[in-house]
Amino acid sequence: MALAGAANADVKIAFIDPLSGPMGPSGDAAFTSFKLAFEHINENGGLNGEQVELTGYDNKVSPKESLVQLQKAIDSGAKYIFQGNGSSVASAIIDAVNKHNARNPGEEVLFLNYAAVTPAFTNEACSFWHFRFDAHADMKMQAITDFVTGAGDIKKVYLIGQDYVFGEAVAAAAVKQLGEKDSSIEIVGNELHPLAKVKDFTPYIQKIIQSGADAVITGNWGQDMTLLVKAAANSGLQIPFLTFYGGSLGAVAALGEGAKDTLFQVSEGVTNLEASDEQYALIEEYKQRFPDYDYYYHRAFMAANMLKAAADKAGSTDVIPVAKSLEGLSIEGAYGPFTMRAEDHQVQQNLYISTVSDDVKYGVDNIDLGWVLVDGGEIDAAAAEEPTTCEMERPE
Fold it and tell me: Looking at the chain, which terminus has fewer C-beta neighbours within 10 angstroms, N or C?
């Protein structure tokens, strides 16, 4: 168990994500981001004047283990729960938090989701007790499919993803959107593989090569992203990989020079965009503090800052006033505003499509390659917005 924050803190916050095993680096990269964010918040008055203690709980990407860790967190006094890696985990936490809050009035907890992007969570499965600080899969896929249909030379697409609810959502969005936007584009493969189980993706890459695909679309994250592109590099496959999480630790290094203008991702920020001196200082402080990682989870800092803004606005750190203050809240970030849509608790934000270049201020993976915006790669928040079917029940 890792601890960060103030001694004798007033507000306890739990971080529940993988901190060990094959997906551990993804969880730890996010945890270190929240750690630095809340250190800064404590230095600047905390949440409504109250200091924060952040505790990390290792769930090993298991929904069952996540529920064990959630109960430990609640028993310890945590009122706010951050989680993101794995929509199957997020689904279990949403259900558990809904039940806990119904059974324990006055002892409510709030789930702050920074990365689990299955669209249902802010549509048919929406909950007052859940807020999402990342664009969901349909929003990200709109950016990718616009890129694909606008490229002109991509006629055959291979879909590959992780075999759980998120991977299914990514594939469904790609099929639907490509069909609507350009029916001449052929999907030549649509495959799901076990989450965090595949050690060598060469057989999958061989299928992609045999399919004659012009591009790959994948929602893979963590080790599954890195090993996928590593196998592509080893097999000599050089076609665009259009990804949600191409910035996963080690992915750029696995491709090396081959990543340039080949590996693409859609994200809420790009470190090599022009930004303020304050933002540059934050990027450099993060890298100095955590040299094994890169400034990747911009949304972790934004989520923490939105929580502070909501508590300060509410004049309270109690869950219900803070939740109500989060609804409709907008704060300015380094790469544009983050606005929490009240009707479904889905954040609205600019999105950016980037690729890898050697002409960068900030590299990744401790090499001299980093992410840069592609031409026309900025999608403003209004263009990225998607409708919702949420019919939310709110506490009185």
Answer: C
Q: How far is CA 41 from CA 21, 136, 162, in A?
A: 30, 27, 35
Mean pLDDT, rounded, of the chain: 96
pTM over 0.85: yes
Q: Which two tokens stand for residue 129?
A: 């007790």
90 neighbors 84 (Cβ within 8 angstroms): yes
Nearest to 201, CA basis, from 235, 248, 239: 235
Domain segments of the chain as ranges: 2-135+275-349, 138-267+351-383
Which residues have CB under 8 Å from 350's CB, separation 6+? Answer: 268, 335, 336, 337, 378, 379, 380, 381, 384
Q: What is the pLDDT of residue 232?
A: 97
Domain 2-135+275-349 has CATH 3.40.50.2300: yes
pLDDT in tens, 148-158: 999 999 999 99
- Interval 208-244: pLDDT, tens: 999 999 999 999 999 999 999 999 999 999 999 999 9
Phi, psi of 333 (to 5 degrees): -115, 175
- Just give the CATH number of 138-267+351-383: 3.40.50.2300
pLDDT tens, position by position, 80-118? 999 999 999 999 999 999 999 999 999 999 999 999 999
41: left (phi over 0), alpha (psi -120 to 50) or beta: alpha
Give the pLDDT confidence of 9-38 residue by residue, as tens digits. Answer: 799 999 999 999 999 999 999 999 999 999
| Residue 148 structure tokens | 């694909």
- Burial of 324 (C-beta count, 10 Å sphere; 0-12/13-18/19+): middle
**Two tokens, residue 234:** 């080893």
* C-alpha span between 47 and 127 (Å, rounded): 23
Separation of alpha carbons 327 and 329, rounded Å? 5
